[in-house]
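Weekly puzzle thread! Below is a chain. First person to post its structure in token form gets bragging rights.
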Amino acid sequence: MSAWLPTAPCTPGDCVSVAGPRAGAARRALRLACCLLVLAAGVLATPLVRALAWLPAERLVRWWSRLLLASLGVRVRAGAAPGRPAGGSLLVSNHISWLDVLLVAAVRPGRMLAKTEVGRWPVLGPLTAWGGTIFIDRDRLRALPGTVEEIAAALRRGERVVVFPEGSTWCGRGGGGRFRPALFEAAVRADVPVQPVTLRYRTADGRPSTAPAFVGEDGLAASLWRVVSARGLTAEVEFLPQLPPALFPGRRQLAAAAQRVVDRSRDPGATRPDAPGRAACAHPVERPARVPEPAGSVEVGG
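Winning reply:
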């Protein structure tokens, strides 16, 4: 594990539960079967969509992502998204679950930034790679400047890139982690707006749900089973005002501004990270050691 990586103290045992109504065994089995069918359809269709440039790829990605979420029993509720900017944009969001990628893609698809381990996942790994995902090796700090420049190049070409700058998943019950400034350097270099987004998950009665959270040593199979076991699970996407980099002195200030607007829009019933009596999972665990950076590199922590 790299010394600079942020680590959330959230654990499946302490932070994750399936509250509210539960789906029956037959419904869970049906959801899993439908999920496999939709995944198989995606695997078969992806090479065709990539080969035929005239196909409405973005619309198909939104449709497929919504269908996959529906197969898992997850309803999508999205606020009004801003109009598509003339150029590229860096979409930044809080990070709770592996479902976050599907949720964003169901509303505003873009090239995802994901850790290299995701590329090795069965089925989902090849799908993310074929979808143009930019992979980041979090254990190789010296590779970070190259990743930032790859993102900046995509933004200059007018593409949308989606990143989760907290660097780790959080259960969402007590806030989240600090937005790491390094990836915001790509928006500064390309001079494109940052689009903050807040993601939330709720139970059937509107309460915040931690069932989709994918934290700590959680396994994908266990997390998937929790999701299909929940009834009335709703995923919410809220788009916040865009932040032009020109209004800020640098990436640190831009990252801090994006985090402020996302924090303000989190569930008002959630315990704030800076509030008295905050939950234990609200404490980020920062590793004190720092890896020396090569000249001209992008600082991760600050």
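Puzzle host: Confirmed. Bonus trivia for everyone else. The first strand starts at residue 74 and ends at 78.
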